[in-house]
Each structure stands twice: as structure tokens, then as C-alpha cells.
Amino acid sequence: xxxxxxHAEVEFLEEIQALQKIDKESRPTNWELSPxxxxxxxxxxxxxxxxxxxxxYIGDRRLMEIAVATLTTDRALLLYGIPGTGxxxxxxxxxxxxxxxxxxxxxxxxxxxxxxxxxxxxxxKLLAEGPSEDALVSTPLMAAMKTGKIARIEELxxxxxxxxxxxxxxxxxxxxxxxEINTEVQAQKGFNVIATANNKDKGVNDLSSALKRRFNxxxxxxxxxxxxxxxIVTTRVAKMAKSLELPVALPTLQDIxxxxxxxxxxxxxxxxxxxxxIKSPSSTMSTAEAISVxxxxxxxxxxxxxxxxxxxxxxxxxxxxxVKDPIQDKVIWEDYLDTVVKPREGWKDIYRACKEVSL
Length: 359
Fold this sequence. Notes:
The chain is of the alpha/beta class. Helix content is 47%, strand content 12%. The protein is globular and about 70 Å long.
């Protein structure tokens, strides 16, 4: 059986090992690679022997240097930004490159409890034997502390404030008290935390000032240029199509350029030439959504079309990504189609397809 999605340390093991062989820089305790090599893994590099390390993050190298450097200090790392800027992707790959293990993950939700952060109990043993180390159930955070690895916390601001504050002692004192059995877990060298949070999520729980001081925040921006965003979408779509084994031809550069243009214009509220102002919809219009649109179109084409991505496949996915509010967003989308897409040369097919789907 083949897994749907490999962990980063498995999928990119060859690249990590290739960097390890040539990595002559000093490594912090329990790090698989030096900080310089971790950044090379993230940004991509052609090695002296011709081996190519593929880029995992396409953007400002300095941001990755700041993120990795943070993890060598006593501060944790908070990756912050709008949804779809690659925070989880970057978090996973940093953990894979540093610890060789990206699986020490806590998924933050409104229902995340204190036990998910600190530790839990095997209640059968607890009732039979009372509190003991054998009755303890380790969390990913506790496991990371014991082994000197990187723990990941996704969507930190989705977790309630009182549960968030369990991190304060762990991040400041580097220990986890277990008062029930009068002991504690002390973090081994190499331990740190990467958390992600977005600024557009409804029901966000702001971090307390005490917790904020334990994090160094790196804001991951949307791609600066259309070329950069096209490169990201093209790379991720090709990789996901291969993973999903879609029996379909990959989209042309023109297809991706048009989708990226639509997303960037609606996101920025103005056309690329700066001539027409546009209202932005309530949806995030992120790069991740653009990738999803292409993948959904490829799936439609593969199983319900002729195996070649066409404007009708794209239109169905586009509208689902853009029109989240059936009243407000639909008006904005219809206006964009009529004022921007319709008169644009070479876009008649996508205009007609979107109009047909909108009916």
C-alpha cells in the first residue's frame, strides 16, 4: 500500500542525506543539519556534485534565515500571516530538516485541551495503580522535550487563552512540571517549538503578552510578484498531481498564469496594470487556494473530461474558491468578470465558462 502523503523527512530523505554529507558547519546539539544547511534545504541549492535540492519555500531567503536562527536561541518561533502563505508547509520542513521528525504535532482547535499540551493519563492504570509514570500519556510536546526535538503547534490562536498559557512555563523554564507524581520533564538541548497562526481566522484567541514574549514572530507574506506565485503554484501542482496519480496532462503555463492573475487582482483590489480598482471578496484568495483550484480542475478533467484541463474545469473550481458569501461575493465576482475578464484579450473562453457556471 502506498501512502497518500509522505512526511517531509521521508519524501525528501535523499536531499537531507545529500546535505548532511557535505555539511561542514557546526550543528547545534541534536540537530541533523547546521542552520546554514537547513536554509539551503528550504530554499533549494545545486550541490557541487550536481545533486539538486529542490526549493520548499519560494520567497525571501532572509525570512528563512531569521526563522532558523530563532530556533538556535531560547525563543520559540511563531510563523504568522494570512491563510495559504505556507506556514504549515514551512513548519513541517524546518522540523524535518532540524530533527528528522516532523510528526511531533499538536493541531490547535477550539477544543484543544490542557491535556493535549501537557500530558494525559491512561485512566485504566490511573484507577488501578494511582498516579505513576507508567500511567502517564505523553503528548507530542512532552516527547519533543524528552528527545531534544522540534514540536509543532498548528493554529495556536485557535486554542483558548487559558490552554495557550500552559506553554509559558515550558518555553521560559524549559521544563514541564508533573505535580501528581512530584516530578518534572526537563527539555533536552535541541528542543524548541514552531507555532503557526493566521490573522484572518474568525474566533481567534489573541496571545497573552507573557506568551508573546516567548516567541519570535516571522510574518510570511503573500508572494511579491506574479512570477514568484506562478512558480509556487506550478511546483506544488506538479508534485500533488504526481502524489494523487491523476491520469491527466499537467496545466499549461497560460492556465496557471490566468488563475494567478485572477487571485492576485482580487486579493489586491486592483488590476495588474493598475487601471481598474476592484472590490475584494470575503475569501482569502491565497496561493494555497489557487493551488486547490488547479488541482480541483485537474481532477474534473481527469475523471469527467478529456484529460486536458480546460476553461470549464477551471471555472467550476474558481467560483467555489471565490464565492464564499453567496450574496456579497457573487456580486463582486460578476462585476470582476464583466469589467476585467470579458474585455481581456485571450480570456473569452474563461469568461464564457465562468458565466455558464454562474447561471
